[in-house]
Amino acid sequence: MRSRKLTCVSITLIVVLLCQNVHSQLQAGFYRNSCDCAESIVKDEVRNSFIKDQGVAAGLVRLHFHDCFVRGCDASVLIDSTSPSNQAEKDAPANNPSLRGFEVIDNAKARLEAICKGVVSCADILAFAARDSVEISGGIGYDVPAGRRDGKISLASDTFTNLPSPFFNVDQLTQLFANKGFTQEEMVTLSGAHVIGRSHCTPFSNRLYNFSGTTSQDPSLDPIYASQLKQQCPQGSTNPNLVVPMDPSSLGTMDAGYYTNILANQGLFTSDQTLLTNAATAIQVNQNARNAKLWRSKFASAMLKMGQLDVLTGNAGEIRSNCSECAFSASSRLLWISSKKKKVGFYGNSCGSSETIVKDEVRKGFYRDQGVAAGLVRLHFHDCFVKGCDGSVLVDSTPGNSAEKDSPANDPSLQGYEVIDSAKARLEAMCKGVVSCADIVAFAARDSIVITGGLGYEVPAGRRDGRISQVSETFTNLPPPTLNVDQLTQAFAKKGFTQEEMVTLTGPKFRSHVCGSVEAEVVHKGSKNPNLVVPMNSDCPGFGDAGYYRGVLANRGLFTSDQTLLANAATANQVIKNARNPQAWRLKFPAAMLKMGQLDVLTGNAGEIRTKCRVINSKRERGMLQTHTTL
């Protein structure tokens, strides 16, 4: 076996501008006594792959970057998704299908497991491989402090707020990198890795064909270069395999070509060319273009710093035996619901794309306005607590009937209707009369939790849509913000929830109006402006955060019904537990959502499948409905 014939010689690499704040538990030569061939084996696999495809070097550098910027350098980017409802980082739009180099990591891991079983982490393999890729492409080598452990969680939703978009401007780029502890100069330095990269057409096609209302082509893009790109990426092409080099000269070496390209208006992405729109970053672009050697030195230093972002060490995390599989699975730790009526994958045979389409519409809505995520969760709650989960909250009022959505508890604060409408329209075009509005709301709520950092879960489907929606039903079924803890407990008990589940379900209120819409309307004295709102938590976290409970403990609960949770010993204890252990709350919350999603559902021949979610079907439409089996 080739790996056994390797002479494990310690290779002294050039070390340049080592980070001074090296993590105390990371050290160069970490595997010297436990698996001294570790770095040599990784280097060998990188070299083997580079000979076959030079593009793998850029792929491995980008793989390391996309790993470290999401949950830290913990190899969470390598984990496979476990189900459509539990998408891992690698299947996020920012990563799939553009990330590459996974096979290099897998090959190195397999060889290392054969020699040193359970010793070398996937996170360290990735850090070594990125360094070796820089070096093999002409960059400066550096010693990699090792000792990282592998993460146990990988969520596609984490990528949305942690990875830079190719559409970012310079201020957005600067802020995102600053959030990770990088200076603006380090941001410009790390961007230089694009010189050996490639891109699919989608991230820059708007610069070629749909730039603005007045011009189809980005005026900051060199016209000759634009013509070349149009030949490589024809308008309207749906070929997922079309890629272009990010450096038009395609030398594939770690040089200053990225910066000279920008100066020639040949930056491929908006986020590349934008570096000339700021005086400070423009100066750095010019300096790097003139002094490639200096840039290589700075790049090695920045890579070292990046490789230590939020690392897991000691007893944290794990050492995976297979880099694409995690011993821990969030979905496997969930959930206790075991109703005999539930049917996960209900539309598998009748409309197999239903959940994918809903998820796609949630994602689009979230990109336009992150607040839609919390809005859709609240929409599901307000639907289920009034006449059960039957989509009745979606129905419009008529001249003779005021519907639920126009109740003071819902209007104007509820949001997310347009996401449901868009999903329904697409589903009707594909699977007419099959997917209920009630199920769409349930799917959308789940997807909203996942996209904002919460845990995914399978949604039993087969709900049918209700035919009655009355504003009066909301008055006795939706808990007002003025309730005390005893009244809240009773209101939830009537729906079959325990007091602990009541406290668990109140957690989404931490989503602020900016990021989400469980919003509080506060009327200034004398003001009649219906659009005045106050954020319920200015920190703007996702559904993986326990900020609501920390706010209550700090006496910043906005409603009486929030702060009252401290007035009872049992609920106060639950608030403290959730504040201290967000992970425990993240597990309890999907279980409570699953339970809520089965409140008083209509199944079988009850109710209907609405053609439009806002309108009860006419008699003619009812006669055309298909009959489905029960939940």
Short description:
With 631 residues, this protein is an all-alpha fold. It is built from 26 helices and 2 strands. The chain has 4 domains: 1-176 and 292-333, Peroxidase, domain 1 (Orthogonal Bundle), CATH 1.10.520; 177-291, Peroxidase, domain 2; 343-477 and 599-623, Orthogonal Bundle (Peroxidase, domain 1); 485-596, Peroxidase, domain 2.
Question: Would you write up a description of this structure?
Answer:
The chain is an all-alpha fold and 631 residues long. It folds into four domains: 1-176 and 292-333, Peroxidase, domain 1; 177-291, Orthogonal Bundle (Peroxidase, domain 2), CATH 1.10.420; 343-477 and 599-623, Peroxidase, domain 1 (Orthogonal Bundle); 485-596, Peroxidase, domain 2 (Orthogonal Bundle). It is built from 26 helices and two strands. The chain has helices at residues 2-5, 38-52, 55-68, 102-115, 122-136, 170-179, 184-191, 202-209, 223-232, 257-263, 270-273, 279-290, 292-306, 330-333, 354-368, 371-384, 417-430, 437-451, 472-477, 485-493, 499-505, 547-553, 560-563, 569-580, 582-596, 619-623; strands at residues 198-200, 243-245. Strands 1-2 form a two-stranded antiparallel sheet. It is globular, with a radius of gyration of 27 Å. The N and C termini lie far apart (55 Å).
